[in-house]
Design a protein that fits this description.
Two copies of one chain form a homodimer. Helices cover about 30% and strands about 25% of the residues of chain A. By secondary structure, chain A is α+β, with helices and mostly antiparallel strands. Chain A is globular, with a radius of gyration of 20 Å. Chains A, B: It comes from Streptomyces populi.
Amino acid sequence: MADSAYAPVDFSSWTCPAPLRDHDRIVMGHGGGGTLSAELVEHLFAPAFGNSVLAELGDAAHLRMGGARLAFSTDSFVVRPLFFPGGSIGDLAVNGTVNDLAMAGAVPAYLSCGFILEEGVELSVVGRVAEAMGEAARTAGVLVATGDTKVVDAGHGDGVFINTAGIGLIPDGVDIRPQRAAPGDVVLVSGPIGVHGVAIMSVREGLEFGVEIQSDTASLAGLVADMLAVCPDLHVLRDPTRGGLATSLNEIAAAARVGITLDERSLPVPETVANACAFLGLDPLYVANEGKLVAFVAAEHADAVLAAMRAHPLGKESVAIGHCVPDHPGMVVAATGLGGTRVVDMPLGEQLPRIC
Amino acid sequence: MADSAYAPVDFSSWTCPAPLRDHDRIVMGHGGGGTLSAELVEHLFAPAFGNSVLAELGDAAHLRMGGARLAFSTDSFVVRPLFFPGGSIGDLAVNGTVNDLAMAGAVPAYLSCGFILEEGVELSVVGRVAEAMGEAARTAGVLVATGDTKVVDAGHGDGVFINTAGIGLIPDGVDIRPQRAAPGDVVLVSGPIGVHGVAIMSVREGLEFGVEIQSDTASLAGLVADMLAVCPDLHVLRDPTRGGLATSLNEIAAAARVGITLDERSLPVPETVANACAFLGLDPLYVANEGKLVAFVAAEHADAVLAAMRAHPLGKESVAIGHCVPDHPGMVVAATGLGGTRVVDMPLGEQLPRIC
């Protein structure tokens, strides 16, 4: 490769294929899952890696190997604090990647696990994180098949960072992709939104809102299996993590070139989350979830899928929140309780850094 | 999972399944690939994850999915500096995982890529790293299929950390595992050892040894393909990265319960590496390589495999360095130039931290 010359490294010769909002340095928002993250992928990583698989921008890549249809996905986890009400970085590291595979309709099977540990972190902390991962993996029905541990000097990490990658098998006949959203589709969500983000922020800011809010981190693989059993032709699934429901819906609207209309009154926002969001100045539509999914289903299947979701422990509070329309392609519009409408935009960065 | 209680987290209830050399905190050596790393896997991760796939301790897991035989592997990269003579963290991130797959006899196909970036790092640096990854991926014949970017606050990371995981297809009839080393096998190495580690240390310490020593980072997938073409029944392949050739040989001796004898005079140590090691107080047998492999081959195939290796640009300087014996199972012994022998032990940690 060309880069074999040694210091001083001359970066002046490197030019970004398109301006990245005039940033010349990484800001927190580049990791937020919003517009800045998307720009980084579109203008920097995709051209550098130069391939079309990455450019599909799903949460998981769809691959075909030796006759098998596979989903392949990765996520790194840098959440602070490591332990929080309802879970830990270990739960997120397993469930996050398991859910990305499930959102491709795949049956999650194997995970890899890469730790980057900071010198000086207690072995008991690493042990507790690993046990949480093991427990979450058993619950989700996946095996941690391969791993790696690196250690960085004190002051050059932050306790425990984890990367997981996962592989799952996509059943024959299943074709779930953001591009398949179509006018007429009903949009379903599997339960209350904004819970994970508010749980993390409450801990981090030392806030209390009457009752403790617990993260919703969970494996959604079983829920998806039950949904596929009644409707193998699900169009789109997405777990609205970083950037929340608004970001996922905007990505889907853009990928499929459809409009999405939401009925704001039908959005399942628990009172505790609403109160916390009011206090923190957050919009629950943009707050991260770690155990919820949004599904796009043809209207004729919507009732059956909704019933299947409500019959599952993780989908008891599932509701329809809107539908796809041929108007305003690429745009998400919410009908407000007052009879008006508002555009639900893609966020620039993330309101809540290091939420996962 | 059990861990839903919130702060103060009580770690006193957590007990490590076996004492980890009396450490109660992570030290740099836990990331060094030696005995401390192995203890962390054996006593902490394997019991927590509770499965047998991980326990095989190969560089890649061997999986069967939908009729396909797959290799699956992961590595995180935290090397300092990010750019060094002969390559960059981007090259290592691609070649390291590609080589782990190739050492299972797999044809590397897809990589995932997870970045953990530190707030404030120049976009031009990220761009150069990504371009190096793209170039290395094209050379190795793999696609970066899925990715993720997280950002941590300034002072809680170190510029750029990268995790890659990879999937490759294992051809029918190929069965390459450390357990297959057998008495009588000839041990081959594909060229000069210790080059990568010395290249990094020279830069980091600002040392010069007459000529610039360049890292040997390279994809070994093509070399392995040529070796398999003449001998599908290779027993063991390993790329001696962290911990060097001594660590790889000890792992193989332990896994297969065979003895290994080396002819010290046959070890390909370049004069520049020997000089640097003498100056730095290092043993070249323990210094990391990033573009070399060691192969265990039945004696009757050794000449053909060695010839195939020498015919490949990355194997021109291949040599036989020893063989497997029924004596001293689990132990590596070197015949010195003076007619004596010495035990080549497993290192505790890594002489050179953050080498990859």
